[in-house]
Fold this protein.
Amino acid sequence: LGAMRAQERPLTPGDIDSLLGSRGELSRREVAELVSNILTDAEEEIERTALEAVRAAVALEAGEAAYQKSRADSLNARNSRLAAERSGWRVCALAEAALIGAGLLLFGLTR
């Protein structure tokens, strides 16, 4: 029984008879061993099911975290591009203001 996996269907009286053999009575030790084996199998199945559920939850969370990281990286790249564009426009505006100022100065000096 220790090597048997939990089944999807409950044991029938025929299954129980085949496991116990043709004897009609079991000793206390045999009953205790049988119950112990059943409990051990149940614990193993519960643990296996719990581990599968945890693995599924971790995989789901990992996928969500990867998506959020990708989205954050994309937004950071966009912000960097916008900052570079603003910096470029600022330099152009300052250069244009300097040219206009120089032109006004030159115009004022020539008049």
User: Anything to note?
Assistant: The longest helix spans residues 28-110. The mean pLDDT is 85. The two ends are 111 Å apart (CA to CA). The chain is about 80% helix and 0% strand.
